[in-house]
Design goal:
By secondary structure, the protein is α+β, with helices and mostly antiparallel strands. 24% of the residues lie in helices and 36% in strands. The longest helix is centred in the middle third of the chain and has 18 residues.
Amino acid sequence: MKIVLEHITKRFPNRNKKQGGEIVAVDDMSLEIAEGKLVGLLGPSGCGKSTVLNMICGLEAPSEGRIYFGEDDVTELPPERRGVGMVFQNYALYPHLTVRQNIMFPLQNLKGEARLGKAEMEARADEVAALVQISDYMDRKPRELSGGQQQRVAIARGLVKLPRLLLLDEPLSNLDARLRLRTREEIKRIQLKTGITTVFVTHDQEEAMSISDSIVLMKDGAVHQIGKPQEVYDEPVNLFAARFLGTPAINVFDARIEGNKLYIGDDLISEAPGIADRDVYAAIRPEGFVCRPGGRLRCKLMNIEVMGRDTSLIFRHGAKPENCRAIVSVETSRQIEGSELCFDVKPSKLHIFSKDSEERIAIEGGNEE
C-alpha cells in the first residue's frame, strides 16, 4: 500500500507560558512511500520523526495537511480503522500473558465481520511466530525471554492483524550492539518476505542505511533530504546531511576558493571550476584520504588506532582545531614514519558547502575519481 503525506504540519502548545505561542514539531512535510518498501525516518532526537509516525497511525492529528493510504484519505480515520501494525521502543508486552496470548491480544479486540474464532486466532499466531522464529517460546512469559526475543514478539503482535502498514518506532534502542545487528537483519528479512510497506524510525544512521530502501533525513521538523541510503551518503545536499551520515563522521575544514582552486589553509587541494572566489567549508569523508609522500594536504599525526581490518589515522590540520580521522589500510599505516602526514583527496569523497547557507556547492564536471 502506498502512503502519501501531503503538506503535513503539526503544532503543539508551548508549555513555557512566558514564551507562549506554539511549537512546530513537523513543518510542511510532503512524502510518498511506495508500496512494499521499507523507509527509514532518520534524524536527531527531537526532529519530529516519531510525531510523523504518530500522525500516520492516527495517534496524533495533523494541524494541517492530509494523509492518504493508497487512494483513501485517512486523515480523520481513527487508529483502529487504519489497518496499521505498531511496534514500540519498549516492546509494551503484557508481563502476565504468555507469548501466544500477547500475539493474539490484538485479534481478540476485532469486532463484527473481522472477528475470528479461537482456533483461527491461534493459527494466525502460530503463523507469525514461525515468521519471526519464536515458535519454541509460545508458552513462556516475557520475563523469560531475552531482549531480542521480546522484540520479535512485539513484531509478531504488530503483524498478526495482517496490517496494510507496519510502523516501527526506534525498535532496537533497548538492545545491545550484537542484538541490534541481528534484529535489524530479521526486520529486513520479515519485511521482504511479507511485502508490507514499513516505516522505520531511528536516530541511528547505521541502522537506517543498512535496512532501508530509502531514507528521509529530518531536522527541526523539516525534511532535508530523501533518497536511497548510498545516494544520500555520496551526495549530501547540505552540511547537516553530510555530518549526520557516516561513521566516523565527515571531516569539515575551513577552506576558500581562489582562482577556481580549492585551498585548505595554504594547501592546494583540488581544482574548483565554475565556483566564484569565496570562503567555504570543505568536507572530506574519512575513507577519502590517500596517504602518500608529497600529498597535497599536509597534516600532523596525533595517533594511530588499529581496528583490525582498517586503521584510523588521527591527525590535525591548521584549518581545523579538532582532531580529524582518515581510514586507511593496515598496510598503509605500517609504512608511516614520523609525525608528518601527507594526503591527496579522492574527488568523489570531497564536498564543498557554502558558509552562509551550508548548502552544497556543485563542482562543474562532477566529483569523479
